[in-house]
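Side project, low priority. Logging it here so it doesn't get lost.
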Amino acid sequence: MSSELLVGNAVIGQSGGPTAVINQSLVGVVEGLRGADAIKRVVGARNGVRGMAEKQVIDLTHIPNDQLEAIAGTPSAALGSTRDKPDSTYCERIFENCKENDIRYFFYIGGNDSSDTCRIVNELSNDSGYELRCFHIPKTIDNDLMESDHTPGYPSAARFVALAFLGDSLDNKSLPGIKINIVMGRHAGFLTAASALARQHHDDGPHLIYLPERNFDPDEFVADVDRVYARLGRCHIAVSEGIHNAAGEPISALMSGLREVDAHGNVQLSGTGALGDWLANLLRVKLTPQGGKPPRVRADTFGYLQRCFPDASPVDQAEARAAGRKAAEIALMGDFDASIAIKRVGDDPYWADMKAVDLKSVAAKTRTMPDEYIRGHNDVTEAFLDYVRPLVGPLPTMGRFD
């Protein structure tokens, strides 16, 4: 391969679960490529690689700036998304269409499965002899990509979780009982952990936080809730959808009886309230005194609500845009392929930088919360709160009677 700048067209795709800021990254790439002599046209693939395989694209070359700006500030994937994982036959269709349309630059915005797709497409293009340079732009509310301090999409989703728990904790205090909220997070507990930002007073919820980085013991859970309930007359609880037992089996899949998997082999955890319902019923059964009245227990599953709520973190918006621009920048420097990573540089004040890293260091790998962010089996540390506060941005201060 030559390291000289290829002249041809560029395609941008969006993949996986949408976020509140994924379109900022899309617009960042378009802005970064505009005016470059090597780029003849910029097109957007409808529904990610599916659009590349099926020739479903939209021309982004001359979209007016005001329209681009409006799209940048709009949640969800403006081009549509996909969870397709290309095999060799699928990739052959992609390559044929790329050759036919003189596409030489592929920008893919997505999470760890999407980064692996980008890696596979890149390696197959190398083997085929058709030079297609591939660049992964990070996106995931789970915050589980290697190499990055955090990922675009996470700060906004964490802000939603913090605000939701802030309001829900006040509700729980007004009408005391036991309240369980199930938060997204298959292997990493970053999003569930953000619920701790809701605590503004010593007795505010969530009082208990359960993350997938620690084994979940139902008996221990009941004892934890019983202690808090006995002390406060209520208990507010955050639970990651990915909690698992000591054998590594997801509690959600075991309790619901569902073993459905997606194209990437992941057991389906979202789309059902089974985990919350099972935990609520467990507490009713175990905490009802003999001959007495069961405690008031409710459970909510946040689900997709976390992904695209239109109150994005300002830091998240700026960094998602910058990640797209950085991908365009390194492409125009003649690099073959890379993933963009956000590196935290300072905390007072907070600021971060964008770096290019090897695709293989990100693809199909999962980052989890470090031990220093987790307290015991049901809480987070001050170190985690210091980490997440500047990403989420200021939260409203709640008043109360003493």
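Brief comment: The first strand starts at residue 8 and ends at 14.
Revisit when time allows.
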